[in-house]
Amino acid sequence: MDSRTIRKECLDILQRMKELPPADADRLRADEAADLDLINLSFDSLTLLDFCLELEERTGLIIEPADVLAETTLNAVVKLLADRGQAGNR
């Protein structure tokens, strides 16, 4: 799965979870260089787990909550997953 698709899935999930206002999601979709600090969202541990599980389901790539906490930004999480996909590490 390519990074554009992964980014779209992340943004769709965040918007569905009401963690990201529609205007911010639209801005991030329009500008692929724009980034989002995931740590500043109102994630509690359960919300973070839900985000990871839904992202895994949509992409087929494994992501742990610790990955999100370590990478901290949307672009870093997208890159991590894209790299895993290319390496065949599902």
Q: Can you describe this structure in just a few lines?
A:
66% of the residues lie in helices and 0% in strands. With 90 residues, the chain is mainly α.
Kindly list the characteristics that best describe this protein:
mainly alpha; 90 residues; 5 helices
Task: Give the arrangement of secondary structure elements.
Blueprint: H1 3-16, H2 22-30, H3 45-59, H4 65-71, H5 74-87
Helix pairs in contact: 1-2, 1-3, 1-5
Number of domains as seen in the coordinates: 1
Percent in helix: 55-70%
Beta-strand percentage? under 5%
Calculate the terminal CA-CA distance, rounded to whole Å: 11 Å
Largest sheet: none
> How many strand units?
0
Morphology: globular
Integer-rounded radius of gyration: 12 Å
Detail the poorly predicted runs.
Answer: none
The CATH architecture classification is Orthogonal Bundle
- CATH domain topology: Non-ribosomal Peptide Synthetase Peptidyl Carrier Protein, Chain A
Order of helices and strands: HHHHH
Question: What does this molecule look like?
Answer:
The chain has a single domain (3-87), classed as Non-ribosomal Peptide Synthetase Peptidyl Carrier Protein, Chain A (Orthogonal Bundle), CATH 1.10.1200. The protein has five helices and no strands. It has helices spanning 3-16, 22-30, 45-59, 65-71, 74-87. The model has no long low-confidence stretch (mean pLDDT 93).
